[in-house]
Amino acid sequence: MEQEALVNSVLTIALFSVVAYSLLISMGLVSYIIYKPKKGSRRAEEVEIVIVSKADHRVKNSLLESIRYHVKKYGRIIVVVDEGAPLIDMIRKIKGVELVIVPSKYRRDLVGKGRALQYFVDCCVNPDKWYVFIDDDNLILDDSFLYEIPVYDKEGYVAAERYPRPKAGFKYYCFCYGLD
């Protein structure tokens, strides 16, 4: 009897999990199909690409690949790192890179990339520009978001976070947040 009750409980939980997972997948698929961002005919010009990185040797290869790719594609980028990051000297030598160094004494109550982003917002943001923040291992493969910015800017938006969409990349798949 107890074994039968246990089996029934496990089956009920498994069935509930399958139904819940199927519901979430269905909702995501419907949203993916239905939602289309507004696009204008004009490409945004006042856009800066910002890479936020810990700039240590563990991310060196992906960081360098991302920097070189985006400098070649956009002409210049901004890289935000913490004071004392091991790769600062190397990044400083790359043409087309504006290096922003977060002082070690800045807002120690914040941690990681959130701290770096807050510093950048506090010290470096120009209200007449849009900033695209990416990780040190991301590549922007598609410029379509540049046609969306003027539409949302005109509507009074000051920030945007795009929904994740699977994008073709160098691996089987990757999710690019904020970069359709």
Provide structural commentary.
This protein has helices at 2-34, 60-74, 88-92, 112-124, 149-154; strands at 47-52, 77-82, 97-102, 130-135, 165-167, 174-176. The protein is α/β, with parallel strands linked by helices and 180 residues long. Strand 1 (47-52), helix 2 and strand 2 (77-82) form a beta-alpha-beta unit. The longest helix is centred in the first third of the chain and has 33 residues, at 2-34. Mean pLDDT is 81; it is low at 163-180.
Features:
single chain, 180 residues, alpha/beta, four-stranded parallel beta sheet, two-stranded antiparallel ribbon, 6 strands, 17% strand, disordered C terminus
| Computed Rg | 21 Å
Q: Gap between N and C termini, in Å?
A: 54 Å
Strand count = 6
Overall pLDDT confidence: 81
